[in-house]
Structures are given as structure tokens and as C-alpha cells.
Amino acid sequence: NRTAAVIGLGQFGFELAKSLALAGLEVIAIDNDETKVRDIAEFVAFAVQTDASDPKSMAEAGVAEADLGIVAIGEMEPNILAVMVLKELGLGEILAKAITPMHGQILRQLGASKVIEPEREIAQRLAKQLAHPNVLEFVELSDEFSLAEVPALEWMVGKTLVEMNLRSKFGVSVIGIRRHADPHGLVLNPLAGDKIEAKDALVLLGREKDITKLV
Amino acid sequence: NRTAAVIGLGQFGFELAKSLALAGLEVIAIDNDETKVRDIAEFVAFAVQTDASDPKSMAEAGVAEADLGIVAIGEMEPNILAVMVLKELGLGEILAKAITPMHGQILRQLGASKVIEPEREIAQRLAKQLAHPNVLEFVELSDEFSLAEVPALEWMVGKTLVEMNLRSKFGVSVIGIRRHADPHGLVLNPLAGDKIEAKDALVLLGREKDITKLV
Ligand SMILES: Nc1ncnc2c1ncn2[C@@H]1O[C@H](COP(=O)(O)OP(=O)(O)OP(=O)(O)O)[C@@H](O)[C@H]1O
Ligand SMILES: Nc1ncnc2c1ncn2[C@@H]1O[C@H](COP(=O)(O)OP(=O)(O)OP(=O)(O)O)[C@@H](O)[C@H]1O
């Protein structure tokens, strides 16, 4: 069972500590604010009030035993100091929230394996979603491929997948059909003979521009 | 061409304004801080310094013409006031960043079509990723289905998809293969006879617990 130390319990750190514990990891939650430590206590294995820039008290809090550490402090100086403390304590994997791109560069140079910029990441995902208003759900899998759930267009209703032939016409694959009759069910890997009904939704896989051409 | 008004240019709002403009929308960026308005100006159609809680100056800034508005102010009072101003100006779709869950409830009751909590959303996604360390990329498509990119396990190398038969053994579908020989290429909808080579990665679709069982 992996142990994660979450340093800093702001909106991001608090939710991360809670979610990691829910996912089955043993979580040590650290903050120098007593109220936050008390609030997280019921959700995690260990909640300790301490200054994250102090290696001695961090070691006493058991942080050296963690496999991975995530620094979620929102001020640059204590954030950088906390990363250095985690390095000193020998943690295998250190992630840290960057407050600016320059801060992110500093963290990487200091050895953070991954730098997180929550606001910027969500902004980019939301922009993609807003740029595709006809798409119910839009996920970028890689620079090249995206997944999109789109409501069945009028011309699709009553046609089978092989009749629609989206792959040769648009270069887009239908990897799932969400049946209107069964809103929680997603039919994965539908068959060539499956017919689209009104109000069904199709889960498409393909390049963003090809999906956009289709809708 | 849709017009979006982005109100508040903190980390989230600034990146959102930039990304929406990149995606081809006409963006009106609003902030009462002159420096931020100057910084965003090169990226968007219109950058206007004004108090977002003042309907008159917001109308003068052209915000009434926007199809959608996103309030990205980080303080509850001006955030709520800005949402009310966008409603008054008749915008069709209003999104807003919520600072606390209670604030989110208030925004929904006031008519925000969608409430965003960037830090909490990224924390939940990161927790999923950290909980699946053997998975290169983990995306939750819905409550039920997830997508995961996993490095080919030893027992898979040299086998064809039909030989591995992941669907009947694990309930998981292989919707893509990322060939080691071609790192930017993702082979979508691989064929039953496709063989897995060492260091390939498989893109799997299935329930989270089934994917986890496999890796
Ligand atoms: N030296 C420190 N040791 C331990 N905790 C610290 C230290 N400095 C700051 N913190 C804690 O880090 C937490 C997050 O910091 P802060 O609130 O500045 O970040 P934030 O970016 O506003 O957070 P979020 O956006 O996640 O809400 C706070 O709860 C704060 O008490
Ligand atoms: N009444 C107002 N009218 C216009 N802009 C405003 C108003 N009040 C605040 N803002 C702007 O909203 C922006 C974002 O607010 P703030 O920095 O408090 O949020 P934040 O949550 O810390 O942002 P982020 O997390 O996105 O960096 C600031 O640039 C601020 O100048």
C-alpha cells in the first residue's frame, strides 16, 4: 500500500489528500494551520500540524516513510523549501504545484518529477470543451487523438454503423454508443450492424479536426 | 464565430481567455487591474479595464454581445455580483468559478449553467493518476468507463490481440496500440491479428476495476 505525503491543505491539497485516501493510499496530510489539520483528520491516516520547511519536524511526522510527496503550498518560498525538505528526506517521487511558469522551472531543476498548474490545466480543458459546443464531452488523449461524445445527428438516426462508415468518410471511429433507452449504459465496441436510434449519443475517437468536421 | 466574455484574469481566467482565443472564439477579456488587461491584450480581440460589478461599464465594454460569459474572479462578493451583471446583460450561458461548495450552490441558484472548481477537479484527476502508477495515462470517461494507456506487460509481448482476448478475460477493450517504433503514432482500432511488440503501449477502454485487475 503506497504512502503519500500531501503538504499544504488549500483547496487543491485538501481535495488531493481526501481523494488519495479514498483511492486506497495511506495519506500523511501536513499543514501549519491547525484548523486545516483538524478538518482533514477524519479522511486520512495521519494529519500533522507542522512547518513543512523544517526537516526535523517533517521527519518526526513520518514523512520520510512516504513513497511520494505532493507539495500543494500556494506561496513560492515555503513551497520551494518544502520540496527541498522532501528531497532531503529521500522521497522517491516529488510533485509540486507551481504558482508561475518560472516557479515551475525552478521546481523541475530542483528535482520535482512533475509540476502541476491546476488553474491553467483546467482553463485549457474548459476552453476545448467550450470550443466544441455540440460535443457533450471532449477529452484530449494526446496531441493527436481526442475522444468526444456527441449526440446522434439527424442523418445518423436509423442507420447502422457500417452504413454510416464514419471511419472512411471522416477518419473517426465509433468506440461506444450511449443508448437513450439506457442512460447509464455505454455499449462499448459496438458492432457494424448496430443501428443508431434518436437521442443516442456516439463516443468517437479520432483527431480533433476530424471530429469537428463531423459535428 | 462565438463571442466569450472572460471576467477576471487570474491564473485561471488569463489562461482561459488565451486558450479560447486560440480555439477561434472572439474573446472580450475583463479585469479591473490595468496590468492584467495590458498583459492579455495581445492575445484577445478586446481587453477592457472595468469593474465587473458595474452593469453600465460592462455594457459599454461590449459584454452584452457575448454568447457566453465566464466569471473567473477569486473573491466571492465581486464574483457573485459579476454573475448577476452577466444575467442582467442577457448572456445565454454563464459559467463561474466557485470558491467553496456553498458558493457553488449560490451560483447555481442564481443561474450559472456550470460551476467550476479548478483546484478540486485537478486534485481528483491527479489522485486517479497517482492511484494507478502502472498506467501512463488515465482518463475517466464517465462514472463507469475509463481509458488507460498501459505499457505492454511481459506476457503480452509476441501475442496477437485475439490470442490475448482481453475482452472475455478482463472485460477490457484494446482501442489503440502505441507502437514503440513510432512514438507519435497511435494505431486506432487495431485488428485481431495485430501483434504486440516489446515496449508498445496499449490504449484500453473499460471499467476502472477491470483495467486495474489487468495491470
Ligand atoms: N511552511 C508551511 N508549512 C506547512 N503548510 C504551509 C506552509 N506555508 C503554507 N502552508 C499551507 O499551505 C496551504 C495552501 O497554501 P495557500 O492557501 O497559500 O495556497 P493556494 O494556492 O491559495 O491554495 P489552493 O488554491 O489550493 O486553495 C495553506 O493551508 C497553508 O496553511
Ligand atoms: N470587481 C472586479 N471587476 C473586475 N475584475 C475583478 C474584480 N474583482 C477582482 N477582479 C479580478 O479578478 C482576478 C482574479 O481574482 P483573484 O486573483 O482573487 O482570483 P484567484 O482565485 O486567486 O485567481 P486564480 O486562482 O485564477 O489565479 C484578479 O485579476 C482581479 O483583479
Account of the protein in words:
- The structure is a homodimer of 215-residue chains.
- By secondary structure, chain A is α/β, with parallel strands linked by helices.
- The first copy, chain A, folds into two domains: 116 residues, NAD(P)-binding Rossmann-like Domain (Rossmann fold); 88 residues, Regulator of K+ conductance, C-terminal domain (Alpha-Beta Plaits, 2-Layer Sandwich), CATH 3.30.70.
- Helices cover 36% and strands 25% of the residues of chain A.
- Chain A is built from nine helices and eleven strands.
- In chain A, the strands form two sheets. A six-stranded parallel sheet of chain A has the order 3-2-1-4-5-6, sandwiched between helices. A five-stranded antiparallel sheet of chain A has the order 7-8-11-9-10.
- In chain A, a hairpin with a 4-residue loop joins strand 7 and strand 8.
- The model of chain A has no long low-confidence stretch (mean pLDDT 92).
- At the A-B interface, helix 1, helix 6, strand 8, strand 9 and strand 11 of A face helix 1, helix 6, strand 8, strand 9 and strand 11 of B.
- Bound molecules: adenosine-5'-triphosphate (2 copies).
